[in-house]
Design goal:
The chain is an alpha+beta fold. The chain contains four helices and 13 strands. The chain is globular.
């Protein structure tokens, strides 16, 4: 019996090791597909401009700025007003002008969890061990007829993610997220598509998200993503009360507020057996 138990333990340890190796292999191929780790880390900042569609004809202009290692600023412009969510690497804040508010205030617990996910410049798969995350391969699955490798990511804070990686190209085409807010799970899903190249790295230009299993989904379509734009740290810092809080849109952002320009199509990796724009993120 002792030999049997030891043998079973050995098989379990081998299986766990094989799963970890398989997960690392999938991540390695994902990195190779999108351009490689060196090309990715050469991008120090990004600015994305596009349109948010919340359904029912509700649309707004969305601008999102990222800076390494973990700063993000999201601006949501509608009817001459601009709301802001931001994280400066230490704390999160927001401005919600819809009710006449002008000053910045701290993000709530759920909002902070969400923006911390956005602030991770490369995402939880890249250098996951250094971030305190665990990744395991949990088998094959399908998403809209596409075969996928399914990776489970357990983040340092206990939240969970499942990445559905296209078996042909290894890029993620769907992400399921389970956050825990005050001990209660909240589940969301995101589908990704329309990958285009930015500074040598393929990024999704189309994303859909919403509560898991719900038909009520919002869509973001990026019309332009720029890499290595100059962004000072103060861009992400919480402004003092009464200070000017939002810059005026300039250049492409100003054009986007009136009529979003068309992005010139670039060569896309074959991320789906069907066009990725059929049902993006």
């Amino acid at each position: 019996m002792r030999r049997v138990l030891l043998g079973m333990l050995g098989l379990a340890l081998c299986a766990a090791s094989a799963s970890a190796q398989t997960a690392d292999e999938i991540i390695s191929k994902y990195l190779k597909t999108i351009g490689g780790i060196e090309q990715l880390q050469a991008i120090k900042s990004t600015r994305s401009v596009g349109r948010f569609n919340g359904g029912g004809g509700f649309e707004a202009v969305l601008t999102e700025e990222h800076k390494r290692p973990n700063m993000v600023r999201e601006e949501f412009s509608l009817q001459g007003l601009t709301g802001v969510n931001a994280y400066d690497g230490h704390g999160g804040w927001k401005i919600e002008p819809w009710g006449g508010k002008k000053d910045a205030e701290p993000l709530g617990e759920e909002e902070l969890k969400s923006i911390l996910e956005d602030a991770d410049f490369d995402g939880p798969l890249i250098n996951y061990q250094a971030k305190g995350n665990q990744v395991e391969y949990v088998g094959l699955d399908q998403f809209e007829g596409t075969d996928t490798y399914k990776l489970k990511v357990t983040q340092k804070n206990g939240d969970e993610r499942y990445y559905f990686m296209d078996t042909d190209t290894y890029v993620p085409i769907k992400i399921e997220i389970k956050r825990f807010v005050r001990g209660a799970p909240q589940e969301y899903e995101i589908s990704l598509g329309d990958y285009k190249q930015v500074a040598g790295v393929y990024m999704p230009f189309s994303l859909e998200s919403g509560p898991k299993g719900s038909q009520n989904r919002s869509k973001v379509t990026w019309e332009k993503i720029e890499a290595n734009v100059p962004l000072g740290d103060n861009r992400f810092a919480q402004p003092v009360p009464g200070a000017a809080t939002a810059r005026q849109p300039q250049g492409d952002e100003q054009d986007a507020a009136q009529k979003l320009p068309k992005t010139e199509d670039k060569k896309q990796p074959p991320t789906r057996k069907e066009p990725p724009t059929k049902k993006p993120r």
